[in-house]
Amino acid sequence: PEPEGAECTASLRLGNQWRDSGEVHFEAWVEVANTGGSPIDDWEIELAIDGTEVYRSWGMEHEGGDRYEAERWNSDIERGASAEAGFQGSVDDDVELPDTVPCSAFA
Fold first, then answer.
1. pLDDT at 89
2. pLDDT, tens digit, 9 for 90 and up, residues 63-95
3. pTM here?
4. Which of the two ends of the chain, N or C, has the fewest CB atoms closer than 10 A to its terminal CB?
5. Measuring CA to CA, which residue among 20, 94, 30 is closest to residue 57?
6. Per-domain residue ranges for the chain?
7. How do residues 48-67 score in pLDDT, each as one tens digit?
8. Closest Cα partner for 28 from 13, 17, 18?
9. How many CB atoms lie within 10 A of CB 7?
10. C-alpha to C-alpha distance for 21 and 55, rounded to whole angstroms
């Protein structure tokens, strides 16, 4: 059976990396996919990645703590479609991002 309601997954993809002042800085892309049975009107992800400081984002707004939500222009996602956002961060050593982060979808 097909899933009912609004559901999403958020996958991470690492982009460029560079070293500056002893830290490794990087950019990463977030793909939020609608995996549910109905369109998504808004979504939110949690970027709680150990040892990572997120200092810039695009396509999503920082809501406090590790929570980021869609911007108005990319909040609607039809069934089977996805939206993309991104962020820059820094770590002390090597960049190790999880494949996915928690995602909440709202209809």
1. 97
2. 999 999 999 999 999 999 999 999 999 999 899
3. 0.93
4. N
5. 30
6. 8-106
7. 999 999 999 999 999 999 99
8. 13
9. 17
10. 15
pLDDT in tens, 6-39: 999 999 999 999 999 889 999 999 999 999 999 9
DSSP strand pairing (82-91 vs 67-70): unpaired
Two structure tokens written together for 60: 């999503």
Residues 6+ apart with CB under 8 A from 15: 26, 27, 28, 29, 86
Report phi then psi at 74, rounded to 5: -125, 20
Beta bridge partners of 104: 44
pLDDT at 2 over 80: no
CA 53 to CA 66: how far, in whole Å?
A: 10
- Structure tokens of 12? 């991470």
Considering the domain delimited by 8-106, tell me its CATH architecture. Answer: Sandwich (2.60)
Tokens, residue 82: 């996805």
